[in-house]
From TrEMBL, chains A, B:
The keyword DNA-binding applies. It holds the Pfam family TetR_C_33. InterPro entries: Homeodomain-like_sf, HTH_TetR, MT1864/Rv1816-like_C, Tet_transcr_reg_TetR-rel_C_sf. Keywords: DNA-binding, Transcription, Transcription regulation. Residues 28-47 bind DNA. Residues 5-65 form the HTH tetR-type domain. The keyword Transcription applies. GO terms for molecular function: DNA binding. It comes from Actinorhabdospora filicis. This is Transcriptional regulator. It comes from the Bacteria.
Length: 193, 193
DNA sequence: GCGTCAAACCTAGGGGCTCTAGGTTTCAAC
DNA sequence: GTTGAAACCTAGAGCCCCTAGGTTTGACGC
């Protein structure tokens, strides 16, 4: 019989594609085995178990995500960079919903140590914000504002939560404008109580 | 043998509590049966199947969510209302992660028809924004900005994605200030290209 | 060409989950 | 007390995860 010639990388790559099609939480060992035309048990020589498979998909996805963001912001600054970052973020989530969902899983320390992508993503985000001249605490708050909006909007969009007729891309662009405005005038919005 | 005296409502309520403890996607019929000290099969006289159980939990959760928001904004206006809305949103997600996850499922039309909570939530959000004097399109964009941020931040917080030492509540408050500022100056952030 | 050995793949089977079919028990109302 | 519906049960099929242990393939050295 012809064998598939699998390796851990090929299995994980196929799993990522399957996750994009079926959803990350519908990623199953048996479904993946079917797609690779192999018995379930065969996959366990490439991957420890389902949790391991999911974690590996997450590492792959986080790396691809960081690469996309890095490519998008390269050579840009200020609002240009913010818009490029935002567009790359959203398109990754929309084009690769399974991988995007995978990026949100909490990795165990062992897996986390195998990649620098999370740190790279954070560094890219902070680099983006440097143009707005915030101190460390304000910058952290701003990072959380951006991450919150980007993630929330993308997640809602992917899950079909926007029902109003208004063009979703237009709302996204408008929000990015609003966020740029907020960042530019960050100190003006501060409220003492 | 003593019987549990279950009904669909009791089953669904127990399922919601279980979801809050174990996570909405770890909600299982057999786990729920264990908790209710009943055989799996017994639950199928109260609920059609797992998908039906999940949908009913979603309807319950969306209703409770809308009630919380409504109670929070009652009698408030302007920034006060925004802050109350935001606090109610976040605390619901943090206190009831399983129910909150349930609110994000897409209901089939039949289930959707059994509740007015989604419409109520949208109405509350739009009422909140009325203070900022936006037209329909701008208001829709603003709703999406708010929903995106609220959902994304809460989701990231619940899933432990904020690792920086900065107090999470402080970041939330700061972001709410920033959003209020953005809404107040909505037209100023508009960029023509 | 032939043995060797690791990697790739397999069958068999246990345990958990969902769900159906069909039977039994409880309880309230007559 | 009988009756009928609601609540609950056992039994079992099908799918999924995973392990144990065995077989096949293919590259490499002799």
């Amino acid at each position: 019989m012809a064998r598939a010639g699998l390796s851990t990388e090929k299995v994980v790559a196929a799993a990522a594609d399957l996750a994009d099609e079926a959803g990350f939480d519908h990623l199953t060992v048996s479904g993946l085995a079917r797609r690779l035309d192999v018995r379930d048990a065969s996959l366990y020589s490439h991957v420890r178990n389902l949790a391991d498979l999911r974690a590996r998909v997450a590492v792959l996805a986080i790396g691809e995500f960081a690469d996309r963001i890095a490519a998008a912001v390269a050579g840009r600054a200020g609002k240009d960079a913010l818009a490029a970052f935002a567009a790359a973020y959203r398109s990754f989530a929309v084009d690769h919903p399974g991988r995007y969902a995978a990026t949100r899983t909490q990795l165990d320390p062992e897996m986390l140590a195998s990649t620098d992508a999370p740190a790279r993503t954070i560094a890219l985000t902070r680099a983006l914000l440097r143009a707005y001249g915030l101190d460390e605490i304000d910058e952290t708050d701003a990072v959380r504002l951006l991450r919150g909006f980007f993630h929330g909007f993308a997640d809602l969009e992917v899950n079909g939560a926007f029902l109003h007729g208004r063009d979703v891309s237009a709302s996204w662009d408008r929000a990015v404008d609003a966020l740029h405005f907020t960042l530019t005038n960050w100190h003006l919005s501060k409220e003492e109580q």
